[in-house]
Design brief:
heterodimer, A: mainly alpha, 10 helices, B: alpha/beta, Alpha-Beta Plaits, 2 domains, 4-stranded antiparallel beta sheet, 13 strands, globular
Chain lengths: 268, 318
């Protein structure tokens, strides 16, 4: 059928075959984990994302330790600072980084192509969640390690509640990032997720507790996912307590944003 | 060889797809597909031919499960593609028109990743060698030429050993080298028993590759058949074009062969289009003699797919 491939200068070897059956899908867990690893590596290899995920939080951590900004909120600067920076990390990875990557993948048709492979739409979303968790784990090790070097002593009984809050918090911010990436143009996603990240970092109860904000805005800020995560992590790691309200607020955001993303996310 | 099956790999009947609501049309819906009909079999290349905007890509997207049909029947390997299971998707390879390739990734890294979604993919290195991907394996996808991207997208569509392959405009942006590689590969896939479904607006592609052609126009299938069937013309001897080369600047005298459309495409290169008979050729020879010229080359071409397309749609395909 095929003529010798002289024009191309390439060997006209037959397509590699050796099987008579047609394609079969890898198991769901393998597909999701592989895609998660692939996206996590892509995030960590991207220079801008690395700045957002590692460098800026490290700078924030050091700045909060050497300045008296947090002196009103506890006896130890680093103990108050570290949970807030971990909340900041969650936002940067799950919301900003993941949102921007998804927005551009959508523009380039990558989401459409991958959804035709055995990975599928659900596998793609689950893989993104795995990628966020993997990058967050790297951040926890780097930022947590740096904080320990700076004298951080988190309450041991607060570790489990903190892990729970990080889990629900990353679900909420991943859903929000997907909602933005799936409805706006990628350039707009880039602008919106960065702007929201800066605004929430500065005045969203992430680093500076909501109670430290003017009384007029405090009730609004305290129902933001940023404040729920920041204050919840501080309650857990400074006082060793699980903050049920923070948990509920994050769960509500995760549910609402998840439903909205399912409803409005455009794949192309 | 694959297990022969009598059921078509893809069946589309009365496919309807609406887009919208469209703001510029006061929020009305726009019907982009209005009765597409298509059958694709294993071991055959089925071509959707049509002008840009005819509905080819939307038809493919409905067949691939990327769009949900608003009406009609779409069966891919006997199943509804919009609700395709991972195992059904594993049997189907897709090459999108825009490629769907992430620009910052390296070609072979992407191919390996796509391969990892299958339990028994083709060996990546063999496939990459066959498509010449290793020539540019070290750069990121954004630096590839159009033809290189098409070859990579084709590899991604084939790596899972599909039995149905969808190729949306596979020759778009192809340099001659890539075109040879891709066309040879498509013929090989057919020989291997795959159902190949491709769209094109290039009549040349269809004429070279198609076992069966569906002409899509205005969101519906307006003609179908093999290239031979479509170009067969019972009313004439089917000759539609006469070309000859001689001195520049000749013009047919008014009234001679008025039913033919004449054109001097380049100085000294003449094309006559229309239904040609032996008598017409005799008149021409007489005219050449009266002008004292003897053409250095004369060629006749039968009715082409382009003529078919013009007859059906009343407009040129491009």
């Amino acid at each position: 059928m095929s003529s010798p491939d002289t024009a191309s200068g390439l060997p006209a070897a037959p397509l590699p075959r050796g099987r008579t059956t047609s394609g079969t899908a890898a198991p769901l867990s393998a597909r999701v984990l592989r895609h998660g690893g692939y996206e996590a590596l892509a995030m960590l290899r991207n220079g801008e994302q690395l700045v957002l995920a590692i460098v800026l939080p490290l700078l924030a951590l050091v700045a909060l330790v050497v300045t008296p900004l947090l002196d009103a909120y506890g006896p130890s600067r680093i103990d108050v600072a570290a949970p807030g920076v971990l909340a900041l990390c969650t936002m940067s990875t799950a919301f900003t980084g993941q949102g921007i990557a998804t927005g551009f993948d959508r523009r380039y048709g990558v989401l459409r192509f991958l959804s035709t492979t055995p990975l599928g739409r659900s596998g793609l979303i689950l893989g993104k969640a795995v990628a966020v968790a993997a990058v967050l784990a790297v951040q926890l090790v780097v930022i947590g390690g740096a904080a320990l070097l700076l004298g951080w002593s988190p309450r041991p009984e607060g570790i489990l509640p903190a892990a729970l809050l990080l889990l629900v918090g990353s679900a909420a911010f991943t859903s929000l990032g997907l909602l933005v990436a799936g409805t706006l143009r990628p350039e707009a996603t880039l602008a919106v997720t960065n702007l929201v990240w800066i605004l929430l970092a500065a005045a969203g109860g992430v680093i500076i507790p909501a109670t430290g904000l003017p009384a007029a805005v405090e009730p609004f800020v305290s129902i933001l996912p940023s404040s729920a995560l920041g204050d919840g992590l501080r309650n857990a790691l400074v006082d060793g307590a699980l903050d049920p309200l923070a948990c509920l607020v994050l769960l509500a955001w995760a549910t609402l944003a998840g439903l909205a993303a399912i409803r409005w996310f455009k794949w192309s | 060889m694959r297990v022969p099956t009598t059921a078509p790999a893809l069946e589309i009947d009365g496919l309807i797809k609406d887009f919208g609501p469209v703001g510029s049309l006061d929020g009305r819906m726009v019907r982009v597909l209005d009765g597409v009909h298509l059958r694709a079999s294993h071991g055959a290349v089925t071509v959707l031919l049509g002008a840009n905007g005819a509905g080819k890509t939307t038809t493919l997207e409905c067949a691939q499960g990327l769009q949900r049909a608003d009406g009609g029947v779409v069966r891919l390997l006997g199943q509804d593609p919009y609700r395709a299971s991972p195992d059904l998707r594993a049997r189907v390879g897709v090459m999108l028109q825009d490629g769907g390739l992430p620009p910052s990734v390296r070609p072979l890294a992407l191919l390996r990743h796509v391969a990892s979604m299958y339990s028994d993919p083709l060996p990546v290195d063999d496939l990459a060698g066959r498509l010449g991907l290793d020539e540019f394996g070290a750069v990121s996808i954004r630096r590839l030429s159009g033809g290189q991207k098409q070859r990579l997208a084709l590899a991604c569509a084939l790596v899972g050993r599909p039995e149905v392959v969808f190729l949306d405009e596979p020759s778009a942006g192809l340099d001659p080298q890539s075109r040879t590689i891709v066309f040879d590969l498509i013929r090989e896939l057919r020989a291997d028993g795959l159902a190949v479904v491709l769209t094109t607006h290039l009549l040349d592609d269809a004429q070279k590759l198609a076992d069966y052609v569906y002409i899509v126009e205005g969101g519906r299938t307006v003609a179908e058949g093999t290239v031979a069937e479509l170009t067969a013309d019972s009313e004439t001897d089917g000759i539609r074009e006469l070309r000859f080369e001689t001195v520049p600047g000749l013009t047919l005298p008014p009234g001679l062969l008025p039913h033919l459309h004449q054109l001097e495409s380049e100085p000294g290169q003449y094309v006559l289009r229309g239904t040609l008979t032996a008598e017409d050729v005799a008149y021409l020879a007489t005219w050449w003699a009266s002008c004292g010229v003897m053409p250095t080359a004369i060629s006749l071409a039968p009715r082409s797919l382009e003529d078919v397309f013009l007859d059906i749609s009343g407009r040129s395909i491009r």
